[in-house]
Each structure stands twice: as C-alpha cells, then as structure tokens.
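S1.2 Input.
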Amino acid sequence: RLIFFFFQAEDGIRDAQESRGLGDVYKRQFDNIQKFLQFQLSINIVAVSLTFLGALILHMEVFYSSQLLWVNVIMDTFGSIALATEAPVPTLLHRNPYPRDMHLISPKMLKNIIGQGVFQVIILFGIILFGDKIFPEWETSDNVIFSRQVGVTSEGVKYGYMHSGIHSKYHEEGLYELYGPSRHFTMVFNSFIWLEIFNFFGARNLNDELNVLKGLRKAHFFNSIIITVIGVQLIIVQFGSSFFGCHHDGLTLEQYLICMGIGALALVFRAILMLIPEDKVFNLFKKKEADPQRSKNLIKKLKVAQAAQRLSGVNQQMVYGTTHSTE
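S1.3 Output.
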C-alpha cells in the first residue's frame, strides 16, 4: 500500500506540474496573439485610411501597389514571426489564468490601436499636404526639382524645399515623365515604414509598460526581423526606383534621418497614451447599466401599489354590500 501510495502521489505531482506548464504555454500564446493583433490592426487603420483619404480628397493613390505589398509582408509575415515567437517572461508564472469569457482585444489594446492609427494618419497626411513647405531639398543631381529655392551652399549646391508630389502639382504638369516618382512621396512612404518599425517595439507591451526594450536580448527572432526590415527598406528607398515608386536618387542622409525622427514619434505618442485611463474613456460610450438595488425598490413599490389597489377594491365591495343589506 505504501509503495502504491508513493507512485500515485508522484503521478499526481507530475500531472499538476504538466497542467501548470500547459497553462503557462496557453498564457504565453494568448499574449503573443494579442501583441500581433495590436501591431497588425494599427497598420491596417493607417494604410486603409490613407488610401481612402488619398482617393477622396487628392484623387490619387498615396502608395504604389508594390509599396503596399511590402507593407503587407511587414504586417503579416514579419509581424507574426517577430511578435508571435516572444519568449515567456518570469511574471507569467505568477499570473492567474485567463477567464474563458475574456475578449481577445482588451481595452488597453483598443486604446493603443485606435490611438496609434489616428496619430499616424494625422502625421502622414500632414506630410502629404505640407511636405513641400517643410522638407529640405538639395540639388544632388539633375533629377531634383524645388518648390522654392532658398540659396546656394558654399560648395555651390542649390538648396530649398522639395517639390510637391501631389497628383495635381506633379503628374499633371508632366514632371513624372521627366523626373520619375517624387521625393516628396518617397519620404511619405519611408516615414510610414519607420513609424511601423518603432510601433513594433510598442506592440511588444500589452500593459502600458514604459520600458519597450525589456527582454530584447532574448528576443532573437524579433531582433532579426527588425534588422531585416531596416535593411530591406534602405535598399527599396535608395535603389527601388520606379518599381517601388521611389525617387531615382533615393533620399539624402538628412532626409532619411528626418524620416527616422518622424518614426520615433510613435513611441513618444505611446508614452502619452499611457497617461489616458482607458476604462474611463470607453465607459463614456457604454450604456449605463441599471442599478439592481434600484430595480428591486421599484418592484417593491409596484407590488405595494398593486396590493393597495386590490385592498381598496375589497373595501369598496364591502361598503357596497353593507349599504344594500341595510336597505
């Protein structure tokens, strides 16, 4: 009996350990799916919104089909590999299991998805409308044209502001046939990709953690994907030319650094979103639930009123009967 009890206890301990380990695996998989959705849905909002606004307001395509294909590779293939293969963190062991009725998209995720999507659409559409007034341009070759020339450097290079790539100001003037894709929309495309590169880091955190670099040493797949995206994007912008809808001379170092700075704003805005309590924001759009105690009180009052009405009816019948009997 003692030997049988020993083996039975050992099997029970092993089953408990296996079930706990299986539960931790489920929690990790659930977290990774949420990270991927947080990243993918925010990109979808930006890409769809810019495509719709470009067709509605500017009567043009903001992105080339080859550019959208590259965005789709980042969003689906690279996003799933980078975020769905995250290693488990030590705090995972101390967390309670997820309830069966838990939603796949939490309020924090929804806040980040909508917030990042709207912010990036505003930034990129602002670049589209006003890029020719704020982005510098240098005459590095015969393919460069200015919207307004400012002066000449000491080396004799002309500089000013880049020409707008909006269809009515570029294509209809015949500039596309002369100079190819505009540098203006090359910066729009490059800024979009860099916003998503930095959004990769923000999507790794689901609970508004401030340190987006936490656990990055062990995230080998994530690091490899980030390096791959940066390298391929550099090649596309500098050498992709008309096939990828980029300027024939690519971007200058200064212009490329500007795009990287615009992309870093995704993390700055994420820090701002952390200050917004998602529960209070989303509760504004919820229907106010009825107070159960108030409902009980109303039911009691209704029953008392009905009882009083029945009692008054009985009293009236008694009075009527009494008067008839006296007669």
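S1.4 Remarks. The first strand starts at residue 136 and ends at 138.
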